[in-house]
Amino acid sequence: MTSPSQANQAYWDGDAASYHAEHPDYLSSFYWCPEMLHEDQAHLLGDVSDSSVLEIGCGSAPCTEWLLTRARFATGVDISRGMLNHAAGALPLTQADALSLPYATESFDAAFSAFGAFPFLANIDVALQEGSRVLKPGGRFVLSVTHPMRWIFPDDPTNLTADISYFDRAYLEQDRDGNLTYAEFHRTIADWFQALQGKGPFLIEDIIEPEWPQGLSTTWGQWSPERGEIFPGTIIFVCRNSR
């Protein structure tokens, strides 16, 4: 049986070229979300000038590339070779699953994920424990994902009618033989709290719900000016490693 990791690795390998062709602006620098919140504005990682930073689910690593000129050291990891092949040359990147990070314990001062890896993992607890393990005690962990509210709306940026249960926690695609070809997982607000802090290894310091910026006309999957004007599309958790 194909695992979610295997299915999503194959999916993103196959979709990498079209994804980059469709989203050149978003992939041009360190943006936390489709609302185009830039780290240079948000400073969610804080002062990284003397920090080693890990990006989990880096894709083609525009965020890591941006950090390399600002942090003491930055690196990224992603499961998809197809996505990594679109990265700028000579970036220090690794192909690996977020469920088993190939780094020593307490290797990094900060870690983050900007819409990478975590929405596609069935076992979020293992991934968060891995993130905590490779972080130094008290290290910063920042995670941006699709806002849980968006799950109840279809993947059509013009549709404002909710018709999917907020408590349905998985979207799976299979081929004719029943093999998994794509997997995405939903967490409610309570699920995220429990995974990160309630039973998880982090302390949540802040939660950010970026507003849709005036003048942004992007229409993309779950995101559009029409939706952004009414309800959030992204949630960002700013945390500290409690180890």
Automatic annotation (TrEMBL):
Its EC number is 2.1.1.-. The keyword Methyltransferase applies. Signal peptide: none annotated. Keywords: Methyltransferase, Transferase. GO terms for molecular function: methyltransferase activity. CDD domains: AdoMet_MTases. Residues 54-143 form the Methyltransferase type domain. InterPro entries: Methyltransf_11, Methyltransf_Superfamily, SAM-dependent_MTases_sf. It comes from the Bacteria. It holds the Pfam family Methyltransf_11. This is Class I SAM-dependent methyltransferase.
